[in-house]
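ok so I'm stuck.
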Amino acid sequence: MSAIVIALFALAAAGQLAGVALLPRTAGFTNPLPTAGCCLFFLLGVYGLAELARRGVQLGILIPIMTGIIPLTSIVIGMVFYGESASALKLGLLISACVLVGYASSIA
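replied:
not stuck anymore, here's the structure
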């Protein structure tokens, strides 16, 4: 894997996670500044994914990895920045779902 692919993947993940982190501050997209930031970060994240696809990274690999990273890290963001709780059952089910998506993508 080249350095540019790793950088684009990091950009895609960071953009989406920053957008997720700003969602509560948008107040349902009624607070203009956080809404603009949220939209820009999501756009940046989607740009990273599109550029990876353009460079030949297979969606069957890319999307399952993102499917694991984004929800799990979003839970951490919610816990750290917004005081949300995450039960062991919730985390276990989400991790199991991520593993299943990864496994399903590896089947020919």
